[in-house]
Fold this protein.
Amino acid sequence: MLSMSTFCYAVLVIQRPYHHGDLRSALLSRAEETLREAGVDGLSLRELARDIGVSHGAPRRHFRDRRALLDSLAVEGFARLRGALEEAASPVPERSFEGTLSTVAVAYVTFATDNPALLELMFTSKHQAGASTELHDAANASFATMAALVEEGQARGELTEGDLERIGLVLFAMLQGITSLANTKMIDSRQLDQLTGYAVEALLHGLAPRTESAAGSHT
Amino acid sequence: MLSMSTFCYAVLVIQRPYHHGDLRSALLSRAEETLREAGVDGLSLRELARDIGVSHGAPRRHFRDRRALLDSLAVEGFARLRGALEEAASPVPERSFEGTLSTVAVAYVTFATDNPALLELMFTSKHQAGASTELHDAANASFATMAALVEEGQARGELTEGDLERIGLVLFAMLQGITSLANTKMIDSRQLDQLTGYAVEALLHGLAPRTESAAGSHT
DNA sequence: ACCTGAACACCGTTCAAGT
DNA sequence: ACCTGAACACCGTTCAAGT
């Protein structure tokens, strides 16, 4: 009576079946862990295959090369980033534009600092020579959320009516810069949200003293 | 009469002397070229040794490992960055604070986009676990230039009297963000200086319309 | 359709031995 | 003091062969 269950145990745990079943997602999911723990440089296809219990040639059926696997991780990352940004940007009654902008900004830097290696991978992948259209689409969908936010700010009269792209780039550069400083430990993670809010405020209202109007610097 | 010069030719060009003479600087200088052409990932100690014409074990006398060579490149990079920033910040009669700040900002993003792989290496090296004090000192010397600029702005009454570190971080984040966008080709290099100037202006005077003072968003 | 395993051409690192 | 060259343990990629 026990022979069948013993046999199954052996097949499922000790001696894996010849076909893994869902090697592709197993690779991606393990790869994301390794990415988080060891960075892009610490991610090796052979080690991945070893961890999962499959031969080192097996991943090739699902990813042409290492680059292809990294690109898939990046696409997944952009999709998750987009979700986080859209949730933060979703309308809340009584919330000021500055409040919404701050919330979205904090959502961005939170994602970025929770997934430092992934974020870096996302941008280097997108920047690559032969980046897939799938990757570009995923990236653009993320950015579209932020562009919509700038348009909303202009419509509500809380952002200057200048070139949409220019304003969007400056805002995005600010977020990316804070991210970069946080991920290289130049900003303490405890003061991250506070600094992000301060940066949004500075960007909206300026760092120059506002009490006196354009005091001459000499004479 | 020709035998001596022929001998020298053979020694110097065909058959290299056993001792290279200045292998350390030869490695660093070739490494910087490779870094520029192929990025950090494309830099291999063995290839470097091959290019210079020395055995693959030779670099070990001068750099304990690959990391040590990269760190030396980073230190060199911070020294050059500091030079560029100090030149841009050096006093010019009749120049407004905003003018100086813009000039320094442009100097930073110019260095960063002229040496994209080097800049990335500089920050990842500094961020490393066992980063040398030499590296930290070189990095801090670069940042000190920018901190001095913020203090000057406050002294001239053109920057709000808030926390020096907070203001410095926001400014620096902006520059680092623009750098990141430029190096991933999200900003066209032709409009880089212009956008940098615009970002400085936005940071000083704000992106919110200034004609009406704090218009309520509802009611 | 999916996976294995040998083969190839690369790495970084170590270290006894050579000059 | 500096460099060589064999050795070791890793890679990514390819591909005939197995199930």
Q: What stands out?
A: Confidence is low (pLDDT under 50) at residues 1-14, 212-219 of chain A.
